[in-house]
Design brief:
- This protein is α+β, with helices and mostly antiparallel strands and 83 residues long.
- The protein has a single domain, classed as Conserved Hypothetical Protein Mth637, Chain: A (2-Layer Sandwich), CATH 3.30.1200.
- The chain is 17% helix and 46% strand.
- The protein contains one helix and five strands; from the N terminus they run βββαββ.
- It has a five-stranded mixed β-sheet, with helices on one face.
- Strand 2 and strand 3 form a beta hairpin.
């Protein structure tokens, strides 16, 4: 059995300070993420990464922000295993 690694890059529009925490697919490769946290000291980014990890069923360490750490629109890389 051979295990391959999949790499996916997506655009995320983040909505910090929301009353809800959820991930919504907008289009192929584009998502909108609402988080409770405010964008202070990386709290909103950390919550977004956890939500995306849960959504894509990967470890939190497999999700990282490539571009846009301080912007509302971000390029996020997700690494996951597949058979």
């Amino acid at each position: 059995m051979t295990v391959g690694i999949t790499l996916m890059k997506i655009i995320v529009q983040m909505r910090p300070g929301s009353s809800q925490a959820k991930v919504e697919k907008i289009d192929e490769g584009q998502y909108r993420v609402w988080v409770h946290s405010i964008p202070e000291k990386g709290k909103a980014n950390a919550e977004m990464l956890k939500l995306l990890a849960d959504y894509f069923q990967v470890a939190k360490s497999s999700v990282r922000i490539v571009i846009g750490k301080t912007a509302r629109e971000k390029l996020v890389e997700i690494i996951g295993g597949s058979e």
